[in-house]
Each structure stands twice: as structure tokens, then as C-alpha cells.
Amino acid sequence: MLTSTARMTASPSNRVTDREDIVKTFRDVFPPALVQRLEEECKLIAAYERELPALLNGKYRTRWFPKGQEPRTAIEEAIVRLRDLVKPHSKNVGAEWWVQLVAAGPTGMIGWHVDKDESVASNKHYLSHPQYASIFYLTDLGGPTMITDQWSPHGSGYTPVVAEHGYLSFPERNKYLIFHGELLHGVLSGAHNAERPAPPGAKRLTFLVNWWDYKPEEPNCSLLDYSAVKGLKTFNTREELEAFRAEVDRSAQSPASRIPYSQRPLAPTPEKDLTTKTKQPWYMYNFRLPGGATDSLRVPHLSHEDREQHSTFHLIWHPRWFKSIRDRHDGLPGPQDYHAYNDQDYQTAPNGGSANNAANGNGPKRRKTAAEARAERERRDREL
Fold first, then answer.
1. What are the distances in angstroms from CA 108 to CA 77, 170, 186, 234?
2. How many domains does the chain have?
3. What residues make up the domain containing 87?
4. What is the pLDDT of residues 60-112, one digit of tens each?
5. pLDDT-derived band of residue 10, with 50, 70 and 90 as boundaries?
6. 250 burial via Cβ count (<10 Å: 0-12, 13-18, 19+)
7. Dihedrals φ, ψ of 209, to 5°?
8. How far apart are CA 90 and CA 213, in angstroms?
9. Is the pLDDT of residue 138 over 70?
10. What is the mean pLDDT of residues 312-335?
């Protein structure tokens, strides 16, 4: 039976008392010797995975490292050490990991999505999210990661309907980004680093780790066959692992440090009209949501000095400003009202309804009336 019920049932903002715990970034995470070996292994993995055929709906494989297993590669040693920064809760049973190697220039975007058990999404048609998602940057080049405070509680639409907070993380070698696993995110074009353009052919390399309370289902997530990866060196004995750890620790320079946010409120100031032609310190970023719907967000113009100094930015889109926009199409479906999930996994639902709009798998989701939409906005405004 088709269902669109998400595994995670609590809003990210309700599960934490401090907004700074929703997204965290650290720099100088690993000693240089581990970063170098990790980069080498990630490139080998990227080349290996690129040759494998895609799975259902064009998806690719991720790999699994169980909690408590002794590392056999630098990748697995990195996961063991990252656990101390993530601090997953006691139900965690392991880490799903994969590598992304994309162009560092204007074409190096990664579409907006939510992380999920891809096999469950493709075959069972509901969303199941990790406890935490995370990204370890292995290059300084390429576009930034953007995360909003939106999530999809029923596999259909996003909450909040319009993003109120966002987080912009620019690549920095040996930097680690952690965020709640159900949040909407993507990678902006490398053109956002226009003041420091990437050399022709340069790549943006990242190592991604999701932390789960169960192992995501196969065939999408599976154990890696070390022997299948050409050139991959493994630790075959405890002595080899300890020797590598000693080499890594000898190269240590400084412990990992938390990167503070640089806040950027992006609502217009009261004295400025929305239609003014005066140049603003932001621009409109248009993007496509899963399923094909489009949206736009204000993104600040950031100088090279800004990015060098801060690296991570907390963007604040004040919800009271959006109230005037929503009033223009009160109760009517519009791009800011309905963000359907609608991945290739979600094609049809029982009774002829589209799966991405099925409230409980029993047909299309009913749209809100004008009165219901107005009451919900007024409730949100009272909570501010």
C-alpha cells in the first residue's frame, strides 16, 4: 500500500531549543595526514562508483559503515572521528556515506532535495530520514551548500510553507557541516564564488555522511567491497591501523573549532519599498524544488573577505514580510503555497490521485480553503 508518511514526526524547530543546534560547522577538523589520505580515497571511490550502472529512478549507491566496526580505510577512520562531533543519539547504529565530485564552476550545482532512505522512497513510497546529515569539504572551490528550515512531514509539501531561516556554507578544505537529516538543501552554482573563480576543469570534492538509527535498505545502501576499488589500500591488521593513527596524530596542528554564524537579515528595511530600483545587498536566487515546482529566495551579496572571515552564514527571511505576499493569492494555489515532493518515485496513488499529493495514500490531498489558509497564517504570526 502506498503511503506518504515520513519516518521523522517532530519538527526540527520543536526538537531543539537552540537554533544554532540545527546546523553546525567546524573547521580544522582532521590532522593534515588524515585529510590527505581521505582525499585520495574519495577520488578512488568516485571513479569506481562512476562506472557502476544506476539503480531504479537513476539513483546511485551509497555505502554503509556499522557502528562499532573497526576501520579498514581512512574513510572509515574519518567516520569514527566525526562521531565525536556529531554526537548522534543512542539509537544510532551506523553511518551511510558517499562521495560527490562535481564541477567547481557555474555548472557545479546539486539539485534541491531531502536526504532519505532512497530504496524505501523508490520501492515503498514514503520518506524515511537520517538523524543527521553531514558534509566534509575536501576542497575550497565550488558553490556553497544552502539549507533551509523546511522539511516534508507527510511527503507532500514543506513546513514552513515559506522558508524563514536558511544556512549558507561555503566550501573550505577540512571543514565539516552537520544538520538535521530531514531539512531541504542543495548546492548553489560555483558562480557564487565569482570573486575567486575556479580554474578550468577544477572539481568540488565532498565526503558525505548520514547518521541513522537503522541501516538504509539495499540495493541503494550497501557495504563496500574493498577489493573491487582499484588502488584502495586497506588496514589488514590492528597493527596497521594503529600505525596509521599514530602517523595522523603526529601531524595534528590544532583541535577542531566551531565556526560561529554570521547573521544576515534579508527582509527589506521599512523605509525601502519592495519595488525600489535601488541596488540591494542581496539578489533573488531562483531554484527548482523536487518535482519541478520553482521557488526563489533572497541571498546576500557576499564579498571574498566576508567568505574568508565567516564561511558560514545564517540567513533570516522575516516571516512577517512574506505575509503581504501570501495575502495576494489568499487561499489560491501558488508557488509559495504548495511545494509537492513529486520525485520519480512518486507517480500514482490509489483512486487516481498523484502520490506526492496523497495525504494517506488514499487520493489527492485537499487544498486549504481561503479561511483555513488565513487562520494558519494568523496562528504563525501570533507565535512570532
1. 28, 13, 11, 31
2. 1
3. 1-268+284-384
4. 999 999 999 999 999 999 999 999 999 999 999 999 999 999 988 777 788 88
5. very low
6. exposed
7. -135, 125
8. 8
9. yes
10. 52
Q: Which residue type occupies 372?
A: E
Instruction: For residue 273, tell me if it sits in a domain.
Output: no
Whole-number pLDDT of residue 17: 36
Distance separating alpha carbons of residues 168 and 185, to the nearest angstrom? 10
Ramachandran angles phi, psi of 179, nearest 5°? -150, 165
Cell numbers given for 187? 548546492
Question: What average pLDDT is seen over the chain?
Answer: 78
Domain of 253, CATH number, reads 2.60.120.620
C-alpha grid cell for residue 275? 519595488
Judge whether 293 lies within some domain: yes
pLDDT band per the 50, 70, 90 thresholds, residue 366: very low
pTM of the model: 0.78
282 membership: H or E segment, kind and range: strand 282-288
Q: Is residue 278 domain-resident?
A: no
**Which one, of 122, 115, 129, 118, lies nearest residue 185 by Cα?**
115
Give which of 74, 70, 78 is closest to 256, Cα–Cα: 78
| Exposed / middle / buried, residue 225 (Cβ in 10 Å: 0-12, 13-18, 19+) | exposed
Cell of 309: 572571515
**Whether the predicted pLDDT of 303 surpasses 90:** no
Which one, of 33, 27, 25, lies nearest residue 252 by Cα? 33
Rg for the chain, CA atoms, rounded = 22
What DSSP designation does 16 have? -
Contacts of 261 (CB under 8 A, 6+ apart): 20, 167, 310, 312, 313, 314
Burial of 122 (0-12, 13-18, 19+ CB in 10 A): buried
Within 13 Å of residue 133, how many CA atoms lie on the same side as its CB? 20
Residue 175 burial by Cβ neighbours in a 10 Å radius (0-12, 13-18, 19+):
buried
Confidence of residue 29 (pLDDT cuts 50, 70, 90): very high
In a domain, 314, yes or no: yes
